[in-house]
TrEMBL record:
<keyword id="KW-0472">Membrane</keyword>
<dbReference type="InterPro" id="IPR004710">
    <property type="entry name" value="Bilac:Na_transpt"/>
</dbReference>
<dbReference type="InterPro" id="IPR038770">
    <property type="entry name" value="Na+/solute_symporter_sf"/>
</dbReference>
<dbReference type="Pfam" id="PF01758">
    <property type="entry name" value="SBF"/>
</dbReference>
<feature type="transmembrane region" description="Helical">
    <location>
        <begin position="128"/>
        <end position="150"/>
    </location>
</feature>
<keyword id="KW-0812">Transmembrane</keyword>
<keyword id="KW-1133">Transmembrane helix</keyword>
<dbReference type="InterPro" id="IPR002657">
    <property type="entry name" value="BilAc:Na_symport/Acr3"/>
</dbReference>
<feature type="transmembrane region" description="Helical">
    <location>
        <begin position="69"/>
        <end position="89"/>
    </location>
</feature>
<feature type="transmembrane region" description="Helical">
    <location>
        <begin position="197"/>
        <end position="219"/>
    </location>
</feature>
<dbReference type="GO" id="GO:0016020">
    <property type="term" value="C:membrane"/>
</dbReference>
<feature type="transmembrane region" description="Helical">
    <location>
        <begin position="162"/>
        <end position="185"/>
    </location>
</feature>
<feature type="transmembrane region" description="Helical">
    <location>
        <begin position="40"/>
        <end position="57"/>
    </location>
</feature>
<feature type="transmembrane region" description="Helical">
    <location>
        <begin position="12"/>
        <end position="28"/>
    </location>
</feature>
<protein>
    <submittedName>
        <fullName>Bile acid:sodium symporter</fullName>
    </submittedName>
</protein>
<feature type="transmembrane region" description="Helical">
    <location>
        <begin position="101"/>
        <end position="121"/>
    </location>
</feature>
<feature type="transmembrane region" description="Helical">
    <location>
        <begin position="225"/>
        <end position="249"/>
    </location>
</feature>
Length: 327
């Protein structure tokens, strides 16, 4: 079991590389991931959310009760900045309907499941990060369909009620089941071992989803690669900046501002990819855009977290040098 835990840690550490590798393999040999569709895809998505739920205990829900203002500010920022920024960038870059759909799907999803790790790397407020991820995930079955109907419902045919039911089954229920298991079984050694392995399982599940999209639509990536990556990058980086300044506007400390930047900027693009495949199967551009966002968000969030940590280290060294000179 310690070996599997170590493997899980390494998979989590190199999430972006694993996802990129899956996409490349799928484009070279599509049959490798062609099974990731329909009910199998739902099961994979559910596994990711179950893993997230298994990290949530009583103390995490207590955060929601003890820090309502922080969580409210963060959740409002999450569900206003990213959807509106997505549609704004789409109009600014004059994106096609397919790319617009993909970008808006990413913007309407809850915070990414890896954002808590990124907040830890950034020396942010991890409890705040967990609280925000929990709140945005719980609200996702309502907020995502509503925003999608409002922002793209007139240009793309979509089933808002069907998306709501799908997200209840694939996101909220697995999270609640995982969380209940964590609360009731957290003292069982076997459960602790399983819980420690789940982050790696989630990474492999993310990779499978991206691989499934690449297997079907990978050949279309280069048709609009430049503008697609530009739009995803602007959306993601804009989320970081606006999230950070939202915290500054509310008078939050540095740790909270960093956390808010990461929580707002890093989206659950894996869920967006699943939603695209389930509800817009004929729209190749949307599927590819959400899959690329999976990779981009994983890389950029990790880079940002490490950049914050590097900044602190650099300034702590500068402070030590200054104090030694004055003493």
């Amino acid at each position: 079991m310690p070996f599997l835990v170590n493997v899980s840690q390494q998979l989590t550490r190199f999430t972006a590389l694993v996802i990129i590798a899956a996409a490349i393999i799928a484009m070279i040999e599509p049959a490798t991931f062609s099974w990731v569709k329909g009910n199998a895809q739902m099961l994979v998505l559910g596994t990711i959310m179950l893993g997230m739920g298994m990290t949530l205990g009583k103390q995490d829900y207590q955060i929601l009760a003890k820090r309502p203002l922080d969580i409210m500010v963060g959740t409002i920022a999450q569900y206003t900045i990213m959807p509106l920024l997505a549609i704004g960038i789409s109009k600014m870059l004059n994106l096609s309907d397919g790319l617009t759909l993909g970008l808006v799907l990413v913007g309407c999803c809850p915070g990414g499941v890896s954002s808590n790790i990124m907040s830890y790397l950034a020396k942010g407020d991890v409890a705040f990060s967990v609280g925000m991820t929990t709140a945005s995930t719980i609200l996702a079955p309502v907020m995502a369909p509503l925003w999608m109907l409002y922002l793209v419902g007139e240009t793309v045919a979509m089933d808002g009620w069907g998306m709501f039911k799908f997200m209840l089954i694939v996101t909220l229920f697995p999270v609640l089941i995982g969380s209940f298991a964590n609360i009731t079984l957290q003292n069982k050694s076997w459960f602790v071992d399983v819980r420690n392995i789940m982050p790696g399982v989630a990474v492999l599940a993310f990779a499978a989803i991206v691989g499934g999209v690449a297997a079907v639509h990978g050949h279309r990536f280069f048709e609009s690669a430049l503008v697609m990556v530009a739009a995803i990058a602007l959306h993601n980086i804009g989320g970081y900046l606006l999230g950070y300044f939202s915290g500054a506007f509310m008078g939050m400390n540095t740790a909270k501002k960093r956390t808010l930047a990461i929580e707002v900027g890093v989206q659950n693009a894996g869920l967006a990819t699943g939603l695209s495949a389930k509800f817009f199967p004929a729209n190749a551009e949307s599927a590819v855009a959400t899959a690329v966002a999976c990779v981009w968000h994983s890389i950029s969030g990790t880079v940002l977290g490490n950049a914050f940590a590097w900044w602190d280290k650099k300034h702590s060294k500068t402070s030590v040098k200054l104090s030694s000179r004055t003493s």
